[in-house]
């Protein structure tokens, strides 16, 4: 009987030391985490700033690879740049006034009824003048006093053209009169002209599809809105 009691005590001691160390304090309601939970809790996280935005990838998000795609992309970029330049030209204020309105120092170049079609900065910013559509043969006058620098029957895409160089109140002014009728030029290079003097007749020579005067004005070598310049100075 005594041997049985000793055996029972020894067995109990062995069982006690065989239990894991945490078994003595492990809460009864503790749940054993699953493998999926461990993996989830140990996973790396991507922290995104609150002001960051996502980008939706499309076919256009990738760089062009063929020559056709490259050319198309370049053309689109060039068109966007022309539009941006045109918008900048339109948004920048410019004082076109050189002489008092109605003083006679600046005259309208078309001696008859005309309709303004394409304006300065049109066609994606490539149009450097004002198109004044008028009947063929309508007189074209010098807008300002000056000296004829160019008088040609074939001045590139401008066709029959006269260019007059002037100085108004210390500012260099160049006025351009293109697309006139063949044989209508009334002045020669080097000749002095006065405002209102006949220089030719409205026509459609050069790169043109209708009778009109494509009137250009340059101030100190920079193209400006010729219609606004006329309105500010010719009255």
Derived from helix and strand composition plus strand pairing, the structural class reads: alpha+beta
Q: So what's the overall shape?
A: globular
Q: Gyration radius, to the nearest Å?
A: 43 Å
Q: How far from one another are the termini?
A: 136 Å
CATH superfamily of the domain at 115-233: Glucose Permease (Domain IIA)
Low-confidence stretches: 13-58, 85-92
CATH topology type of the domain at 115-233: Glucose Permease (Domain IIA)
CATH class of the domain at 115-233: Mainly Beta
Q: What percent of the residues sit in helical stretches (DSSP H or I)?
A: 10-25%
Q: Helix-strand pattern, N to C? A: HHHEEEEEEEEEEH
Largest sheet, strands/sense/barrel: 8 strands, antiparallel
Beta-strand level of the residues, as a percent range?
A: 15-25%
Please count the beta strands (DSSP E, at least 2 residues each). Answer: 10
Averaging pLDDT over every residue, what do you get? Answer: 73
Q: Per CATH, which architecture of the domain at 115-233?
A: Distorted Sandwich
**Tally of helical segments:** 4
What characteristics describe this protein?
Glucose Permease (Domain IIA), 8-stranded antiparallel beta sheet, 24% helix, globular, two-stranded antiparallel ribbon, M23ase_b-sheet_dom, alpha+beta, 235 residues
General description of the model:
By secondary structure, the protein is of the alpha+beta class. It has helices at 2-18, 35-41, 67-91, 226-233, and strands spanning 115-116, 130-133, 139-141, 146-152, 160-168, 171-180, 192-193, 198-201, 212-219, 222-224. It has a domain at 115-233: Glucose Permease (Domain IIA) (Distorted Sandwich), CATH 2.70.70.10. β4 (146-152) and β5 (160-168) form a beta hairpin. The protein is globular and about 60 Å long. The longest helix is centred in the middle third of the chain and has 25 residues, at 67-91. The strands form 2 sheets. Strands 1, 2, 4, 5, 6, 7, 9 and 10 form an 8-stranded antiparallel β-sheet that branches. Strands 3-8 form a two-stranded antiparallel ribbon.
């Amino acid at each position: 009987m005594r041997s049985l009691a000793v055996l029972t005590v020894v067995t109990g001691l062995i069982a006690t030391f065989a239990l894991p160390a945490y078994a003595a304090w492990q809460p009864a309601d503790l749940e054993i985490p699953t493998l999926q939970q461990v993996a989830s809790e140990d996973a790396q996280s991507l922290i995104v700033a609150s002001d960051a935005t996502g980008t939706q990838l499309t076919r256009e998000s990738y760089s062009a690879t063929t020559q056709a795609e490259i050319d198309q992309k370049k053309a689109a970029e060039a068109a966007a740049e022309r539009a941006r330049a045109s918008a900048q030209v339109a948004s920048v204020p410019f004082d076109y006034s050189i002489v008092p309105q109605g003083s006679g120092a600046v005259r309208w170049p078309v001696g008859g009824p005309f309709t303004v079609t394409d304006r300065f900065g049109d066609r994606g910013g490539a149009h450097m003048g004002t198109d004044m559509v008028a009947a063929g043969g309508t007189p074209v006058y010098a807008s300002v006093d000056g000296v004829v620098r160019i008088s040609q029957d074939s001045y590139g895409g401008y066709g029959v053209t006269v260019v007059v160089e002037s100085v108004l109140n210390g500012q260099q002014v160049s006025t351009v009169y293109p697309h006139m009728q063949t044989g209508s030029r009334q002045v020669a290079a080097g000749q002095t002209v006065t405002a209102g003097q006949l220089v030719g007749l409205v026509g459609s020579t050069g790169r043109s599809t209708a009778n009109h005067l494509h009137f250009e004005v340059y101030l100190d070598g920079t193209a400006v809105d010729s219609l606004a310049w006329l309105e500010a100075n010719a009255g």
